[in-house]
From TrEMBL:
GO biological process, one term: GPI anchor biosynthetic process
Keyword Aminoacyl-tRNA synthetase (UniProt): no
EC code: 2.4.1.-
Residue ranges, annotated region (Disordered): 1-38
Domain of life according to the entry: Eukaryota
Task performed by this protein: Mannosyltransferase involved in glycosylphosphatidylinositol-anchor biosynthesis. Transfers the third mannose to Man2-GlcN-acyl-PI during GPI precursor assembly.
Source organism: Bombardia bombarda
UniProt record similarity statement: Belongs to the glycosyltransferase 22 family. PIGB subfamily.
Entry annotated with the keyword ATP-binding: no
Upper lineage: Eukaryota, Fungi, Dikarya, Ascomycota, Pezizomycotina
Record-linked PANTHER family: GLYCOSYLTRANSFERASE, GPI MANNOSYLTRANSFERASE 3
Transmembrane segments: 232-254, 301-324, 331-350, 370-388, 395-415
Main location: endoplasmic reticulum
Keywords: Endoplasmic reticulum, Glycosyltransferase, GPI-anchor biosynthesis, Membrane, Transferase, Transmembrane, Transmembrane helix
Protein name, entry field: Mannosyltransferase
Length: 666
């Protein structure tokens, strides 16, 4: 492992800071002793980035499954409203109605939607083709961010370990082969963009501030290139914090160790002038990003607001985050980190332990201090988030590139061995001697397991919520060719409710896949109890719409609540009995009829067919027998081998109610 830390004068081109000492074996000359020419290094950087862009583009197109609703409802739905207006049918959840989210993230996709729609309208694209391309567009945009995240992981590892070390390449292969990365990096989560911003900011961060004064000699942050690198880092970090306020924990940890040098080796190189520069740039860059964010939120919401404050107020002060689930304190230790790193977990844990427990003989003091600082950020963030009741793996996703970097030297040492010394009679070692693999069977098993996990999760685990919307959209195009426009103001409206989703809340994407504003649909909602006080009985007994649908409505006391649910909800809330006048009779006589709008299609998991739909629509005593509904399956799809939520188990099914002409005949 190379123990020379790259010079900080070239932070914007870190790959050139430590020239490789292995020359072109076919052209031995004086350049051999100095390493590759800078143009060769630059070409290598471009080649790596190009390959990563191509890889993540393919990755984005391969992900055909549903994971978590925030991918759509916290990014693409507000983005759709940005591009096509508030009347476009986008589903804006309560977070957007109460300004908990920054508009910076959805604006990226909103502008992409707007630009693509304008271009395709100019070229007069066939509406179904335009819809097909717009469905794929966000994934393509996100694939660029995913590739950049991989790229900056490699660059930071190269800055730390040096060009001659194999550890940077190990970090690159870890991030490329990680199943979580394949499954989530091209999804439009704010956490995915946060991860890229974080590792890019860490790559540009002036790491000489945690170095050793005896090694660095000059005080840090005194050159123009170093200050410019700091500015890029601070801007990226500020955006990440505005997207996800918990990202601040990473930067507090880094600044804490930088200023206190707790557990760090050597003497601090920071002088008074360095502190002044650091404080000045934090204030200037932070204020600039904050001003841009405030302006963006003012344009999006229509008034001045500060989403990070609202985010912390509702989720912490009002304790609304627990409404979406609570996890034990050890969730991130026993589930979060293993899910993030999968087969690489042992190497990342060894890396965290080694970097925090002692200094390695194979590392210089600056290298050791950098790894200690990064590891301290991981430990601090995991420990702090473990205190909060509501936990999700993606909340610690920004730590994954750091875990790859700290684990890279140990996976390198485990699977490679020191190459034999080259023949002194030849000017260059043979290329095959640069890396000598060992434990190849174990390595093959790790790669195979990762590929199998990535393939199953991306293609086969919960694909139905995506494919059902493709079915609904294409069938709408068949039935209503006159209404195929994305402009809500010029669209020919239809009178029918096209689809009713009797599924757990946010089981499928929405307008980003349904597209047309005239394709009207209805789904069960799950708004939190904003009107209740924390700890109150009203909050403890609150049931949202989806909860009320799945609540036990067993009236005969046999205790089989799971098999009998939903009928009461359909009878009292979806299609209640309402009074109406029969004008055909001489005397005005009140009659009871089922109110509410009947859909063309009902969408749900197959478990509700016998437990709910047949009990409501069929049989002599069925409450909805007089609605004229005759259910018929017209579409179904497999939804994975397992699901931890019993409500989502089984195939996803579409039933035609038969109340509208032109029923699906395929």
């Amino acid at each position: 492992m190379d123990t020379k830390l790259p010079a900080k004068g070239t932070r914007t081109q870190p790959a050139q800071s430590e020239p490789k000492k292995t020359a072109d074996i076919n052209k031995p000359d004086k350049q051999t002793e100095r390493g590759p020419h800078p143009e060769v290094i630059s070409a290598q950087i471009k080649d790596v980035l190009t390959v990563l862009l191509m890889l993540r583009f393919a990755n984005a197109l391969c992900v055909r499954t549903f994971f978590q609703p925030d991918e759509y409802f916290q990014a693409l739905e507000p983005a759709w409203s940005v591009a096509f207006g508030r009347d476009s049918g986008a589903w804006l959840t309560w977070e957007w109605q109460h300004q908990l989210r920054s508009s910076l993230h959805p604006v990226i996709f909103g502008l992409a939607y707007k630009a693509a729609h304008s271009l395709m309208s100019l070229l007069r694209f066939f509406p179904p083709l335009e819809a097909f391309l717009l469905v794929a567009l966000p994934k393509v945009v996100q694939s660029v961010f995913a590739a950049l995240g991989d790229f900056y992981t490699w660059r930071l590892a190269m800055d730390i370990f040096g060009r001659q070390s194999n550890a940077p390449w190990a970090a690159l292969w870890m991030t490329v082969l990680n199943p979580w990365q394949w499954y989530c990096s091209t999804r439009t989560f704010s956490n995915s963009l946060e991860t890229t911003l974080t590792i890019a900011a860490l790559c540009y961060w002036p790491w000489e501030v945690v170095g050793d004064a005896k090694v660095t000699k000059a005080a840090p942050l005194q050159s123009r290139s170093s200050v410019n690198s700091l500015r890029i880092s601070l801007v990226l970090a500020a955006v990440a914090v505005l997207l996800r306020p918990t990202n601040l924990l990473i930067w507090i940890s880094i600044l804490t160790l930088t200023l206190t040098r707790f557990t760090l080796d050597g003497t601090s190189p920071i002088q008074k002038t360095s502190l002044i520069v650091l404080s000045r740039e934090i204030a200037i860059c932070g204020s600039a990003v904050l001003a841009v964010s405030l302006a963006s939120d003012r344009l999006y919401f229509g008034f001045w607001t500060f989403p990070p404050y609202k985010f912390l107020y509702f989720n912490i002060s009002q304790s609304l985050a627990v409404f979406y689930g609570q996890m034990p304190w050890h969730y991130y230790l026993l589930q979060g980190l293993p899910l993030l790193t999968t087969t690489f977990l042992p190497f990342t844990m060894i890396g965290l332990y080694k970097s925090t427990s002692s200094s390695s003989d194979s590392l210089t003091t600056p290298q050791s201090n950098i790894l200690k600082t990064l590891s301290f950020a991981v430990i601090s963030m995991v420990a702090t988030l473990s205190i909060i009741s509501h936990k999700e793996v993606r909340f610690i996703y920004p730590l994954l590139p750091i875990l790859h970097i700290v684990g890279a030297p140990y996976i390198t040492a485990f699977f490679t061995t020191k190459p034999p010394a080259p023949d002194t009679n030849t000017p260059n070692p043979n290329l095959s001697q640069l890396v000598v693999l060992r434990r190849k069977f174990s390595l093959a098993n790790i790669i195979s397991i990762n590929l199998l996990l990535a393939g199953y999760l991306s293609l086969s685990h919960q694909p139905a919520p995506i494919s059902v919307l493709n079915f609904l959209r294409t069938d709408f195009e068949r039935l209503h060719p006159e209404s195929l426009t994305l402009d809500a103001l010029t669209a020919n409206t239809t009178n029918e409710l096209f689809a009713l989703f009797l599924t757990p809340c946010h089981t499928t994407p929405w307008r980003s896949h349904l597209m047309y504003p005239t394709l009207r649909a209805r789904a069960l909602t799950c708004e939190p109890p904003l009107h209740t006080a924390p700890g109150s009985l009203e909050r403890a007994t609150y049931l949202d719409e989806a909860d009320r649908f799945y609540a036990e409505d067993n009236t005969d006391g046999d205790g089989d609540g799971r098999s009998e649910y939903g009928v009461r909800f359909l009878s009292e809330e979806m299609w209640p009995l309402v009074a109406s006048n029969d004008d055909g009779k001489q005397q005005q006589q009140q009659q009871q009829q089922r109110g509410g709008e009947m859909p063309r299609y009902i969408v749900g998991f197959e478990g509700i067919e016998g437990a709910v739909l047949k009990r409501f629509f069929e049989g002599e005593d069925a409450p909805g027998r007089d609605t004229g509904v005759e259910l018929r399956r017209v579409w179904s799809a497999w939804n994975g081998a397992f699901n931890e939520d019993w409500r989502r188990r089984g195939r996803l099914v579409v039933w035609d109610t038969g109340v509208y002409p032109g029923s699906f005949s395929g």
